[in-house]
Each structure stands twice: as C-alpha cells, then as structure tokens.
Amino acid sequence: MFGKADTTKLLREELYEQVWAEPMTKLAQQYGLSDRGLSKICERMGIPVPGRGYWAKIQNGKVLPRTKLPAIKQWQQASVVLSKRGRILEESDAFQALSESIELELLPENRIQVASELTEPGPLVEKTAKSLGSAGIDDHGLAKPRAKRCLDLKIGKDSIDRAARIMDALVKALKEREIELRLEDEGERRTRLIVDDESIGFSLEEKTRREKYQPTPAEQRKLDEDSYYRYRLPDDKYFPSGNLSLKLDLGYWSKGIRGTWSDGKRQRVEDCLNKFIVTAYKAAALKKADRIERERQRREWEEEERQREILRKKIKLEESRVDKLTEQVKTWHEAQQLRAYVQAVRGAGFQSQRVITGGQSLDEWCAWALDQAFRLDHTVTSPPSVLDHKKKHYWY
Q: What is the CA radius of gyration of the chain?
C-alpha cells in the first residue's frame, strides 16, 4: 500500500496575509520552498510582497504600511496546491482528482523495482513472453506476440527476458494502483491503461541499429562509374540494438508532456516506471479536460444552432408576412386603379359601351368590374366568383 501524500491548498488572500506576517525565507521553509520559489508563486497569483529592507525596519520598531491586495486578474490564480515537498500541483479539476496519486508515485518508498530474475510472473506476462519466443522476426530483427490478448511488445529475441521483467513489474504495480489494463484484439493490437475512465495506449519497443551495406571493390568501381548502380546493391541491414523504449500513445491533448522513456547513457527503462505512471495520470487528466471542453463546446454549438434555427424561422415568417403585405398593397393599388377605370368608363357612357362591356349593359358591366376591384382589395369583403373554384380542382 502507498503512504499518504500530504498536500496544502493556499488561497490567494491567505497567502497574502502570511507573506506580510513574516519574512519570505521563514515562510518558504514551512512549505519546502526556496524564498525565490515562493516569490514566483506570489507573482503568479498577483500577490504584492514586502520590498527590500522591510523586515529590518520592522525590527527597528518602525510601523510601515503594507501594499493592498489588488483585485485578481483573469490570468492570475486564486489558489495553489503544494505537496509536502513544495512541489506545485496543477490547479485544474481534472488534475486535482489525481494529484494525490501523482504525489504518491514520487515517494521513495513507492518506487517500482524490477527484479533481476523473472520469478512467478503474472499470467499475462508469461503468455506474452512465451508467444514472443515462438514468433518470427521481421526484417529489422524484431518480434511481436503471435497469440491474442498479449501485451504490446516489439523486441528482439535477446531482449525477451528483460522486457518480461520490466512488464511484470509494471503490470503488478498497475494492479496495486487499481489501474485497469485493457487488451484490444480488433485491428492493430493495443495495450491500454484505463486511468480515471480515460483510455491511453502504451507499448514497449526495442530500437534498431542500422548497418550500412559495404560494397565489394568490384561494386565500388561500378559505383564510381555510375552512381545509380547503388540501387542494384543489397539494402542496409537492421539489427536489434538492445535499447528499449516505453511509450504512451499521446494525442494532441497531451500539450507536449513527455510520452517516451528510452535507455540512454544515464537512465534505463527500469528506472522510469514511476515516471511513466505519473505521466499516465497527467495524460488522463489532460484527456479528460479536453473531452469535457469539447463536450462543452459541442453543447454550446448545439445551443447556438438551435437559436440560429429559431431565428431562421422567425426571419422566414417575417419575410412571408412582408411579402404578403407587399402583395396586398399591390392588389389594393390595382383595385383603386380598377375603380377609377370603371368611373371613367361610366363617364364615357354609350360611346365606349360596345368596345368595353362586350355586349353587357353599362350598369351590368360596371357592377361586374367593381366586384373584381373588391376581390383585389383586402380591406373589404370579397364577393363570390366562379374563379374561387379554381383552387378546389387539381385538374384545372
């Protein structure tokens, strides 16, 4: 079991009172910080601090005013969380949920130890190592497990024992930390960690070294004569280098955090397992924060689209009303013109009767023509007309 990781959360107002109550050097020691480190935190939070010589003057009995705490600005932090060793933890909700787990990984007593010999390996590691032993190698000299539901390893045959010991220690540590290990068989096989309900893939791979093909003296003479002859020569060869790399599959949401730990001059993969788990926690927090933000943006976009659709319907309705009004005004003007025309015809009397009335009496024609004016005028009740039946019969 892990030891308890102590953290301290400082509010902006609280820290302001503290830095004006005692010198920074003494206050910083209480939190495992240097005075410069504490000054940076105050700067980040927008907290004014006493100037040079302030505490010397106070010790000499002078009463000095302290600078007022200004209103917090948008980019300043309202609080900070410190570990018992003075490490500043992230402030986001996603990081706060995992901050204690991250701190526990940094405690010396929780360091993951890789055994010098593989004894009593877990079933998953044992199955993976056995499958690697019987698997063929690719053109780089590396093998992958042939069996289903194995760990995602790609290594040379000589590194199987070491890789198995590393993965056995890691798998057991993950189980102790209650981090689920999920194996995927569909498509390209992946081994995934489920950290705080977020899925993150990881793998262990061996780097290869390249041996350049050395042409024979005869081949070299041909190369000197024709540089394109090199395409007829055998390809360079690749061999397992013995250097392993432990990788987390990080996406755009990782914000540049380190996702690969490789053998080097000063470190071995065996020494990086706690760092690997810390990064897995951080990656899960970042992925969760990104997912929550994208879901918020999606909801915001959907609400904006809903409001746009409402606005579109309102615009369409209003346009329809305006078009109807415009049409009514147009037909009203036509009705006014028609009435004026009837009045003109009536004034012309007998002289225009035959040309205009089509054989009707002038009074009958004027009555009919005025009915048509009434039909165009929406301010009065329209008289019935045979034209009303036109809309009722589709065959017209």
A: 42
For the segment 16-63, what is each residue's pLDDT rounded down to a tens digit?
999 999 998 888 888 878 888 888 889 888 999 998 889 999 888 888
Task: Output the pTM of the full model.
Answer: 0.60
CA distance 285 to 290: 8
pLDDT tens across 125-141, in order?
999 999 999 999 988 89
Write out the DSSP string of 278-311. Answer: HHHHHHHHHHHHHHHHHHHHHHHHHHHHHHHHHH
Asked if 83 and 6 touch (Cβ cutoff 8 Å), the reply is: yes
Burial 301-319 (b: 16+ CB within 10 A, else e): eeeeeeeeeeeeeeeeeee
Is residue 153 within 8 A of residue 137, CB to CB? The reply is no
Q: Which helix (H) or strand (E) holds 42?
A: helix 35-45
Q: With beta carbons less than 8 A apart as the criterion, state whether 242 and 158 touch.
A: yes
What does the DSSP 8-state code read for residue 352?
A: G
Strand 180-184 and strand 79-83: the pairing is: unpaired
> What are the E-state strand segments in 54-179?
79-83, 88-89, 153-154
Query: Which strands, in side-by-side order, build the sheet including 88-89?
Result: 7-11, 79-83, 88-89
Extents of the domains making up the chain: 7-89, 109-297, 322-391
